[in-house]
Prior knowledge:
Elements: H1 4-32, H2 38-61, H3 65-69, H4 76-88, H5 90-100, H6 107-114, H7 120-145, H8 152-165, H9 170-190, H10 193-220, H11 227-231, H12 237-268, H13 284-287, H14 295-317
Helix pairs in contact: 1-2, 1-7, 1-14, 2-7, 4-10, 4-12, 5-9, 5-12, 7-8, 7-10, 8-9, 9-10
Amino acid sequence: xxxxxxxxxxxxxxxxxxxxxxxxxxxxxxxxxxxxxxxxxxxxxxxxxxxxxxxxxxxxxxxxxxxxxxxxxxxxxxxxxxxxxxxxxxxxxxxxxxxxxxxxxxxxxxxxxxxxxxxxxxxxxxxxxxxxxxxxxxxxxxxxxxxxxxxxxxxxxxxxxxxxxxxxxxxxxxxxxxxxxxxxxxxxxxxxxxxxxxxxxxxxxxxxxxxxxxxxxxxxxxxxxxxxxxxxxxxxxxxxxxxxxxxxxxxxxxxxxxxxxxxxxxxxxxxxxxxxxxxxxxxxxxxxxxxxxxxxxxxxxxxxxxxxxxxxxxxxxx
Length: 318
């Protein structure tokens, strides 16, 4: 019922939909002169290229939704441990984000700045709630369930790889890759996709709250916020370099706490065997029949690299 081939094929389809579909929608909007605001430009791709394929996946495969997505309740202890991981992992993600900006443009800044004038509830819905549901269902639900026939380390690495590729740019790929690995371990340890959804929501949601808080402070100081200027602000490499050292220092303090929370979660859920056995779900003779890097996954990687090269690397060279 589950296989790496099925999971890899699904990821390739999602990537193709996002790349080709976004171009098609952009063409249609331009030709028909359809007026869309920034919120619609985020909501429509989320629904068309993520939500709809998820629904179709379960209709076509007839896979169990609960089993595939590991829709198991989180108890109070696991919720607290998950929140701890979600909070203290953020400095590390921020550090990776800063380092990657030395090589790739931060595509998120322009989008978020353009949304800054929107109410907080809408920001949370578009940037935190929908991605936490859709992206986790795809990478920590459908993909991870199809990787039952391999080790947790390999499954986590591929989940992180695919999670990074779904963002379709070099900057987000860098920290999404590491985030995907961490969330895969968390889902396996807690036995629930709700844990990764919660961390995903916390990371994105806290960033939106900080954005609105900074704007509020400027308003209170009677410093008028021009959203057009905010959307066009650029961060120089010298500024990024100056931020890396304090970010590194903070990461050195918080990362051990993340490790501690993971150790506590492993012990509490009695999942020590996940990291001592080749796999906890299948015999070794079946495991050897599962290929990870098949044609579908290799095609996805080539497609992603080509997309980033054409859209980010090549323009910087010309």
